[in-house]
Each structure stands twice: as structure tokens, then as C-alpha cells.
Amino acid sequence: MKITEDWWTVIVGFALIVLAVIGLNVPWKIFSY
Amino acid sequence: MASQPASQPGSKTAGLIVGLILIIVLSLLTNYLSNHPSVHKALEFPLWAAAFGLLANVILTATGTRQFIMPAVKTEFFLKIGLVLLGCSVNITQIGVVGAKGIVQALIMVTCVFLFTWWLGGVFKLDDKMRAVMATAISICGVSAAIAAAGSVLAGKEELTYVTALVIFTALPLMVIMPYLAKAMALPVQVAGGWFGGNIDTTAAVVGAGTIHSEAAMKVASIVKMSQNALIGVVAFILAIYFATVVEKKNGRAGERPSARVIWDRFPKFVIGFVLASALVSLASSYGWTWLGKSVLASINNMRQWLFTLAFVCIGLEISFAEFKRLGFAPTVVYIIATIFNTLLALGVAYLVFGGILFPAG
Questions:
Q1: What predicted TM-score, i.e. pTM, was given to this entire model?
Q2: Residue B126 pLDDT more than 60?
Q3: Closest residue to B296, CB basis, from A8, A9, A21
Q4: B199 Cβ partners below 8 Å, 6+ apart?
């Protein structure tokens, strides 16, 4: 099965959630609203 | 949208890298200004982001370098990742309640707006394929719906380019005006969210309008828009059947029988990610999983704002002034009238569905 761009949004989204869980999210901390 | 010759793979990669750097820098600038004590109250961050995108767009267009960075202008990609992350901030019960109302609203809106635009296109003697692509774009979700409809009715590049340009051009003004109108009319948050989600064509501008209004309106608007997006496959399937069995037959051609598989193929997969993320966080909250506690959710929230900012910068960058000059009179008039109809109808339907008339409010 070809991974479409739509599926990539899900994969990247969950990869970012994993990064936040394991604490590797320093670059994002500079961004706050 | 490309009006220039296709670029070489090497220059595409270079454009992607340079474009990404530019979008990130503009996002950082947006963040800096949004948090700056003297200016942060002047504009909400989606407006800063779109304004910087638009300014960069003007400069790049004037210097003839806009096409070079276009590989990095991925509005929907950034936005959909952000929406998957938004799932972590929305309880699964809220998705159920708001989503069910959103589907009711979407069914009313998609049917009425599609049929109105289709009829109006006929009055202005637009080609059937143009009518189908435009009606789908206005009634469902802008560019991705237009692409799905174009595939179903085998529309050419011209119809798709026209409609895409119109969608992008109307999204930005609606994103800016609607939140302020909603505040001026003192609409309840749920009604405001339902209105943005039911009316604005592109999902990015829906999220932008919601964000400008309030966090709560943004969540309702996003869920309503996703409910509408979920119908895209069904509409694509019905259109394909209609064109194969009625329009092509009328023109003396035998249309290929469409497969129901298109319903799944066109289903927006990020909606699945959004629901899964929400289910995960709702479970974590019920079972007290500390690894997905408040600080982690705060980080995810920050990432989501990051991705939304990238998408809002791209909204400003993706407007093509060259395409605007090429737009025909009749399609533009049909699109504008249909958008006004959509705006008024969406307000009424949002009141019915989210204002406590058809269903309990809240």
C-alpha cells in the first residue's frame, strides 16, 4: 500500500506525540502563545 | 497552479529547503510579535502569520522567485498534522457530541449549497464539469474537495486551477472578517464555531477564524469542518455515478462504472489520527497515566500552535496574483454569489444545530 500524504500527516502527528512523551521536544518550547 | 515550466528535481529540493527556512523564519517572527508586550494585543497570531506570508508573497512575486519556493508551501500538510495534535486537547465525548451535530449540519449544508451552486452555474451557462468541481469545493472543503470532484467527473486542469484560485482567494478575507462579525453579533461560542466550520471552504482558514475568535470556537469549528470533510468520498462517489450514467450518456459516451472504493480512498485520514489522539488522551485521563500528563499535553499544544502558524504563513504565500488575473467573469460571479449564500445559510443552520433549537446546547 502506498503511503499517501494524508497518511503521513497521521504518522508525523503521532511521531510528535511520542517526542513529547519522551521529552525530546526542546525546540518546540521556544514557541508559546 | 504552476504557470512556469516544471522545475528540475534538484531545484525542487533546493526550493523546498529554502522555502521551509523562509516559512520557519516567518513563523518565528509571528511568534515573537504575538508575544511582544507592546503589539501582542493588536492582532491575533493567525493574522500576523498570514500577513507575513502575504508580504513575502508580494516580494517573491515581484522578484520572480515565488515559484521556486512553492514546493515548501504545504498549507494542508502542516495544518492536518496540527489537527492530529489538536485531538490531544479535545475529549472524545466532545468529539462525539459536536461531531454528531456537525454531521447533521454538514448534511444540510452540503446538500443545499451543492444544489444551489450547481443550479447557479447552470444559469450562468458554466460547463457541467466546472459546475461539479465548484459546487463540491464550496459545499465541502475547498481545494481537496475540488481535486476529488475533478477526479470523479474527469475535469481538466483548467477547471481545477480556476476553482482552486477562487477557493484560496476567498478563504483569507472570510478568515479575517467572520470572527469579528461573530463577536459583533455576540454569537454563542458553539454557534460561532459551527458557522466558521460550515461556511469557510478551506480547513486552514476555518482553524484560523476559530483561533482568532477563541480556543473553544476553534475546537468546535475544527470538529464541524472535519465532519464535513468526512463526506468528501461520498460526494465524489455520487458525482462519479451521476457523470457516468447521466452526463456522459447524454453526450453519447459510455462512462466507466465507478467503484464504491472511492469513498474510502477519498476519506481524509487525518480525521482518524485526530480521533485516535483524542481517544488516547481520554484513556490517559480516565486511567491516570502520568506519562501523558499535563506537562506533556502542554508540549503537544505548543507543537500544534507551531504547525498551525506554519499553515497560516502558507495561506498568505499560496495566493497567486497571476492566477487571479486569469479568472473568468462568470465563474467568479457564481463563486461569489454561492459563497454569500453559503455564509447566510451556514449562520442559520449553525443556530438551529448549535444554538439549542434542534438539539440541546452545550
A1: 0.86
A2: yes
A3: A21
A4: B174, B178, B342, B343, B346, B347
